TrEMBL record, chain A:
Residues 268-277, 303-314 have a biased composition (Polar residues). Residues 278-289, 341-352, 360-377 have a biased composition (Basic and acidic residues). Residues 237-388 are annotated as: Disordered. It comes from Rehmannia glutinosa (Chinese foxglove). It comes from the Eukaryota. Gene3D superfamilies: 1.25.40.430. InterPro entries: Bub1/Mad3 (IPR015661), Mad3/Bub1_I (IPR013212). This is BUB1 N-terminal domain-containing protein. Residues 72-231 form the BUB1 N-terminal domain.
Automatic annotation (TrEMBL), chain B:
PROSITE patterns: HORMA (PS50815). This is HORMA domain-containing protein. The keyword Membrane does not apply. It comes from Rehmannia glutinosa. Belongs to the MAD2 family. The lineage of its organism: Eukaryota, Viridiplantae, Streptophyta, Embryophyta, Tracheophyta.
């Protein structure tokens, strides 16, 4: 532990004074590599962040990260206590922090999906806020989270929490379905979702925005001239899968939030420029909301044939951009090098419900699975569990 | 008497106190803007310290901060200011969410003897800029403040300092089990300011 300079040895210092007085430095990797860091709503542990960023150039650190991750996954398998969700949460939290860029290769989406699928039928976690949060984070990573919200509501998961309705309503708002969003807020209020103050505050803000939107004409928005400071609002809006506000619809909104579109390009991994990938890229950028949730069979097709009307909104491919992009983080390389050569577990393929699938034995599998999940988050769920 | 070279400027106690208190005023604005304590629309752009800065147009905040900086200046000139903390709290619950901690070391020789020191103004400016940039970049790790917040300023002074009548004595408003990050410091050779931000540890199960 660091040594502290104390004037009076017996005096108990508050942690900040102690830290300030200590020789311990905070590394500045977080500042140097801030572009590689996906902000987390809950904040990050800076020590872990710096460590993770340093591993960029430090093979020993890389190894220790991989090792830690393996141990956390093993802990999930080996857990024998009363709260099997807990080791999942630990694992998720750690992976979020240890792989700052996030991205398809961190395996996060796969972990989210496996976690939620493991417990979706369990009554005991139905109202557990931690469990709901995993679902919500999963939703944030998917192209169209609406199916998830529908699923949750139909299966009565998380419906006692304000956060559920807020996330759901905001998502619909971003799809420009304000009436639906309004209904969702009202459902939450009538359910007396907790904490009520949070729900009412969010609802009020939504109403204000909706009013402004109705009144807005060609407001240029003086706020557009101010530098983007939108961290708070941007995160609350689950930027990753948002359509860019290059459309007029979005420009009318006076929210001072910034470029989800640019967030897209920053965080997108250098996945192979496969056709499916391009299609998913296109549908991501497409502005038309999905009209038919009912076409579940259609959506469940592996090679999701995209309905023809979408092609009328084709956004030009930017293959140059795809190919020319350097890998955002070395985490991709690490997995392939380290894990596949070391332990290749025989049950690494096939078993859907096994946690062992998490072992990044094959980096390509993780990326592929992540992409598939993003397009169709409930693809591994039994059809009988899906609403309608 | 020190001679002014091309790269160094003379810093007096008063000058240093002015630099530090002004710095603190601008830092307040920067934090309030970056952390979203006040809406973006209430800020206007001004150029200072070589970086575009944003100052609030809210009169209440403006006068609060300007009174603050003059008081700080006075304390700094007397060498009585030890630390200044900007606290951000939840409006609804009063819970302390973030603390921006600036601890000050004063060269007592200067205070006692009234001598001056030398340092390039430009370099001090650079150091201050580095801190301002770090504050803007801190969104990398700071938790999102997605509820309405209020702020307050705490000053830690020497015990023999009388409490000015616009200030009250207070508890330190600490965060329990904080995460802490040290940022850059700056030094006028008379006052050295170290910066630290502390914030709540994340709670995955807090709705």
């Amino acid at each position: 532990m660091e040594s502290c300079k104390l004037e009076e040895p017996i005096m108990l210092l508050d942690p900040e004074t102690e830290f300030l007085a200590s020789k311990e430095e905070t590394g500045n990797e977080w500042e140097l590599f801030k572009e590689n860091v996906r902000p987390l709503k809950r904040g990050r542990n800076v020590r872990l962040l710096n460590h993770a960023l340093k591993s960029h150039s430090h093979s020993q650190l890389k190894n220790s990260l991989l090792h830690h991750r393996r141990r956390l996954i093993e802990a999930i398998d080996e857990y024998a206590g009363d709260d099997p969700l807990q080791p999942w949460i630990e694992c998720i939290k750690w992976v979020q922090e240890a792989f700052p860029p996030g991205g398809d290769c961190s395996g996060l989406v796969v972990i989210y999906e496996q976690c939620v699928r493991t417990f979706w039928h369990e009554d005991r976690y139905r109202d557990d806020f931690r469990y709901l949060k995993v679902w919500l984070e999963y939703a944030e990573n998917c192209l169209d989270a609406e199916v998830i919200y529908n699923f949750l509501e139909a299966n009565k998961i998380g419906v006692t929490h304000a956060a559920f309705y807020i996330s759901y309503a905001l998502h619909m708002e971003q799809k420009n379905k304000n009436r639906t969003a309004n209904e969702i807020f009202n459902r939450g209020l009538s359910m007396k979702a907790q904490p009520v103050e949070k729900l009412t505050a969010a609802y009020k803000k939504f109403l204000t925005r909706s009013m402004r939107q109705l009144k807005a004409t060609d407001e240029d928005g003086a706020e557009n001239q101010l530098p983007a400071r939108s961290f708070g609002t941007v995160l609350a809006k689950q930027t990753r899968n948002q359509a860019p506000e290059s459309s007029d619809i979005f420009r009318k909104k006076l929210k001072p939030d910034r470029a989800p579109g640019s967030a897209l390009s920053i965080f997108k991994d250098n996945s192979s420029s496969s056709l499916t990938h391009h299609q998913s890229e296109m549908s991501k950028l497409d502005l038309k909301p999905w009209h038919s949730l009912g076409a579940r069979a259609e959506r469940n097709k592996e090679n999701s044939a995209i309905p023809s009307k979408w092609t009328s909104n084709k956004i030009p491919h930017r293959p140059g951009q795809r190919i020319g992009r350097p890998p955002p983080g070395p985490s991709i390389e690490i997995f392939v090098d380290e894990e596949s050569s070391e332990q290749h577990k025989p049950d690494n393929d096939g078993e859907k419900s096994s946690v062992l699938q998490l072992r990044p034995g094959d980096d390509r599998d993780i990326k592929k699975e992540t992409e598939l999940l993003k397009e169709n988050p409930l693809r591994n769920f039994p059809p009988s569990s899906l609403p309608r | 008497m020190a001679s002014k070279t091309a790269t160094k400027d003379i810093i007096t106690l008063r000058g240093s106190a002015a630099i530090v208190s002004e710095f603190f005023g601008k830092i307040c604005y920067s934090i309030l803007y970056n952390r979203g304590v006040y809406p973006e629309e209430s800020f206007a752009r001004v150029k200072k310290y070589g970086l575009p800065m944003l100052l609030t147009q809210d009169e209440g905040v403006k006068s609060f901060i300007s009174n603050l900086t003059s008081q700080l200046s006075e304390w700094l000139e007397n060498g009585k200011l030890q630390r200044i903390v900007l606290v951000i709290m939840s409006k609804a619950t009063g819970e302390v969410l973030e603390r921006w901690n600036f601890s000050i070391e004063t060269d007592s020789e200067v205070v006692e003897k009234g001598i001056s020191r030398e340092k390039s103004d430009k370099e001090i400016m650079r150091e201050i800029q580095a801190i301002m940039r770090q504050i803007a970049s801190s969104i990398t790790y700071l938790p999102c403040l997605d509820e309405p917040c209020v702020f307050d300023v705490l000053a830690y002074t020497d015990k023999d300092c009388a409490v000015p009548f616009t200030w009250i004595e207070s508890d330190p408003k600490l965060i329990a089990n904080p995460q802490m990050v040290k940022l850059h410091s700056f030094d006028t050779k008379i006052h050295k300011v170290d910066t630290l931000v502390s914030y709540k540890n994340d709670e995955w199960d807090e709705p």
